Amino acid sequence: MIAPLSWLKEYISITIKPEELGEKLTEIGLGTERIRKENNDVIFDLEITPNRPDWLSMIGVAREIAAIEKGKVAYPKLKTDLIPKKGVHLLPLTIHPDFFCSQRMTGIIIHHVSVKDSPEWLKKKLLSIGLRPINNIVDITNFVMWELGNPIHAFDYEKIAGHEMWVKQAKGGEVFESVDGISYHLPKEAIIYEDSEKIFDLAGIKGGKNSGTYSDTKTVFILVPVNNPVLIRRASQALSLRSDASAIFERAVNKGGTIDALKRTVDLILELAGGEIASHLIDLKEKEFIPWEVSLRLERLAFVLGIKIPDKEVIDILRRLHLAPTLHHSTAKGQDGNSIIMCTIPTYRNDLQIEEDLIEEVARLYGYNNFPKTLPEGQIPTVKIPFYKNYREDEKVKEFLVAAGFTEIYTYSLVSEKDLAEVGVNSEKVLRIDNPVSRDYEYLRPTLKINLLKAFDQNKVHFDDINLFELGKVYCGSTASAANDINHLAGITLKKSYREIKGVLERLFKILGSTKDPTKYIEILENGIYFEISYMELVKDVKQDTIFQPISKYPPASEDLTIAVSAKVKTGDIITTIKKQNTLIASVTLLDWYQNTRTFHIIYQSLQKNLTTEEVANIRGKILVELKEKFEAKQK
Fold first, then answer.
1. In what order do the strands lie in the sheet with 339-345?
2. b/e 581-614 (16+ beta carbons within 10 angstroms → b)
3. Are 475 and 445 in contact (CB under 8 A)?
């Protein structure tokens, strides 16, 4: 929405600077995206939310400024009473309405108009909001639409065959030629106006070439409709065709504003194009569109907002929003004299339907920045909610594997029958989708191996070193009633050895606190190493109680111990044996391995004192004795 400051000032006195006004409009919900200077004017680029179609007009924006400035809106003066003069020949027009398509159709015929260029002031107004002037009739309808917010259309009365028109929904496929000469094949349910010969208007979106106003037009039918927003939106999307009118209609136009919009249009046409009213007012509708009432309990207002706003200020805010508030004191039994404000909602405020809507209006005008800063209140939950999932373990696993050189991938949960056969899985034992989008996505995967292998094969052509992993769901069971989904952790590598993968998994299991043997999850493939683990069982095996150890304030002592030992002896067994020799051994890691020689890095540390050289030597001696007796190891 483009709103020139000079145009807005015609309706409201603005005393604050444009930058401050932009900030205040943004604070109350009318977002000011940009303020720019152009042709000695200040232009506001406003962001209009879908629930506020009334802001798609200069008067609508002026109302918000008036609420901020505590001023009054100067509405345009309406001169005509829409009654033809005595003795004027009345022209006939029969309209067959469809109130599902158009809830209201307000219009009138004007005879003996002179279609010509618009005066400079009108051209300037349209150019300031990015519209191209066409002729005085079309320009007036555009001007009034952006002034008051109701789209208006002017038809050449003589081009409506038989002076009879029907409002219908398109059947789909009809050809329509627009005012700019472009032909469209209409989508089903688009709102159309047609006479006995042709479709002459794509209602709410674009006018027809064979009913527009041109230099030879002498009689016009001015129509202010209220079109179905859903049908307008669907047709606009289907045709990829969007207009200013459709943008307003699809948000739901002011149903009670058609008469005023028509009067304003007629006033300007009689002034700028001449002519005379040549019909009675046409106003077709199934029901009256009148203001409605919504109540606001002051006690409820204070409860929802968490603050007490003085009653006078609440009433003043609602009055500035043109909601005609009246205060009532309830005397009903058990209500302790609670105060209620009754508001009369104007028809341009379709967004105000319930009490909470009024609470929001009070809050935004009062100013969210004026609310006191408070900390959230409540109790820390002590019981886990149903379906609670702690993602910390997942993140810990992923971070570890990334640190180990792996890259995480996400793959589809659906696979083909061919995919299953390639990994030796019988498709009859796998859950199948009843309506698959294709044969390639027919079965729920029972393993992560299928897609990891695909990703592996696709990448090994381009990269020398590939390390991929996935943490995702697999699906067990062949029927819906027996189906179960569980998480698996799987990985595949091109260059890492069996021993390296075993070490990665051992370290991962240790971090998680699991006692499982990693070797049973590792598989040697033709071109790499693969592992897949039931992640649910792995996490279930994890000890839930965490024991925290204090950090010693005394420095550690470290040394490297090299031994000669048979290659058949497992490194893990050696490390375990070393650690058991004394509680002062804080850490043991394998530093190097060459043939039958292995070097271990040992860290000694006490929580009570500094360790002496003699104490470390005594522990080392005990370690060597135990390694010799158990593994026939010798110090090198």
1. 292-297, 339-345, 326-329
2. beebbbebeeeeeeeeebebebebbbeeeebeee
3. yes
- Stretch (H or E) spanning 472: strand 467-476
Q: Are the C-beta atoms of residues 487 and 473 closer than 8 Å to each other?
A: yes
Residues contacting residue 21 through CB under 8 Å, at least 6 positions apart: 14, 32, 44, 65, 68
**Separation of alpha carbons 151 and 207, rounded Å:** 12
- The predicted pLDDT at position 480 comes to 65
**Which regions of 208-354 does DSSP assign to beta strands (E)?**
220-227, 276-277, 282-285, 292-297, 326-329, 339-345
User: Is there a contact between 296 and 344 (Cβ–Cβ < 8 Å)?
Assistant: no
Cα-Cα-Cα-Cα torsion 199, 205, 210, 214, nearest 10 degrees, comes to 160
Supply the DSSP symbol for 428: G
At 604, which helix (H) or strand (E)? strand 597-604
CB atoms within 10 A of CB 157: 23
Neighbour-count burial of 339, counting CB atoms closer than 10 A to its CB (0-12 exposed, 13-18 middle, 19+ buried)? middle
Low-confidence stretches of the chain (pLDDT < 50) are: 333-336
Please give the backbone phi and psi of residue 107, each rounded to the nearest 5 degrees, phi first: -160, 175
Kindly report, residue by residue over 297-319, the tens digit of the pLDDT. Answer: 999 999 999 999 999 999 999 99
Closest by Cα among 2, 9, 219, 249 to 112: 219
Q: Residue 370: its pLDDT value, please?
A: 92
For residue 525, the SS3 value is coil
User: Are the C-beta atoms of 101 and 225 separated by less than 8 Å?
Assistant: no
CA dihedral 264, 108, 110, 73 (to 10 degrees): 0
How would you classify the pairing of strands 467-476 and 407-408? parallel
Contact criterion met (CB below 8 Å) for 585 and 619: yes
User: What is the pLDDT at residue 375?
Assistant: 81
Whole-model pTM? 0.64
